[in-house]
Amino acid sequence: MRAPPRLYALVAAAVLSVVGTALVPTGATASAASASATTTASVAPADAPSKRSMPSMPSKASKASKATEPLRPNAAAPPKLRASGNKLVDENGTTRRLLGVNRSGGEFMCVQGYGIFDGPVDDASVKAIADWKVNAVRIPLNEECWLGLSHIDPAYGGTNYIAAVKALVARLEAHGITPIVELHWSHGTYTGGDSHCPDTAYATCQKPMPNAQYTPAFWTSVAQTFKSDQAVVFDLFNEPFPDRATSDLTAAWKCWRDGGSCPGIDFQVAGMQTLLNAVRAAGAKNLVLIPGVAYSNDLRQWLTYKPNDPAGNLAAAWHTYNFNTCSSESCFNEQLAPVIAQVPFVAGEIGENTCSHGYIDRVMAWLDAKGASYLGWTWNTWDCSSGPSLISDYNGTPTNFGVGLRDHLKGMQ
Fold first, then answer.
1. Position 190 confidence tier, pLDDT thresholds 50, 70, 90
2. What are the residues whose beta carbons fall under 8 Å from the beta carbon of 305, sequence distance 6 or more?
3. Are 322 and 387 in contact (CB under 8 A)?
4. Measuring CA to CA, which residue among 23, 14, 36, 26 is closest to residue 319?
5. Which terminus of the chain is more solvent-facing, meaning fewer CB atoms within 10 Å of its CB: N or C?
């Protein structure tokens, strides 16, 4: 998520600038994590990061048409999604949409030594998510924890971390919910523009791009883990921002796709083509989401630099908050509509820092009209006045912000 400023507890504890990366709570206390991770909770954050505000305009949400039906929560199993033209379809060729929430925690708890997930991820907590008529949950991950690197507490890394993620995926699927596993935090020293943790190479913040050292291995392992379950969706990288490392936008997009030695980035980059190749080489045909640049908010050259996929199963991923550059219907029409016309489109994060829902009301109405997918940030009990948290407790009580998403999803059934 494009969420600033934020404090990284224990590691690189510094206030970060207002530009992107996933929300990180502060003031958390350590909690034990079980290998199965039925609950790996920490104390709720004392405060969450603030966001830039801009005027929001309420809009009545439109209902989904029968021709483009959402996946139904509590179904026997979520569908095996694939791209067909600019739509997502299931095994029967029925058009589907992903409508849901993010479940943050797996990206930061482990590297900070607190646990694996922030708050409960047991069956009751998943049922509370399903009760909002959610059909998809995005699970942010940390590559160092998944790979079990030496500086990660073994209780929260390697086989224990993987087992916890697999268990959460299974619980979501038991409620008919599509799991989206996503790489949020990754390795690599970065000291350029919008640097969030310049003093460490560790995966303690959002980096501008994936790294060649560990990220392909991460995706090879993730793909091998879930390739037999094509209901699982892969989201390659949270919020790339190679455009903040250089003023050459063409070079930034080439870096995005091809990786290598990129201008302004201190480490060797793994581009989106390399990561997609790793997934397909592992034998996984799962749907893959690929974000744009500018913290996933800019997709203007996505079609030009679209990676080649031998499986033909890609969707474009976009993030939007009320403080983003592209946050108006005129921008949506100019920049997003051409992409939506050609490939499936998933707004992996939508949110606002107003503790209200005027902005996401507008976003959902626009995406509904296009038959696109979207997921709210985030199903965590943080303070919505300083970050877009959907809930005030894990029973699913919505914040003033969360009411907008909950009522909209329920109204579509």
1. very high
2. 253, 254, 256, 257
3. no
4. 23
5. C
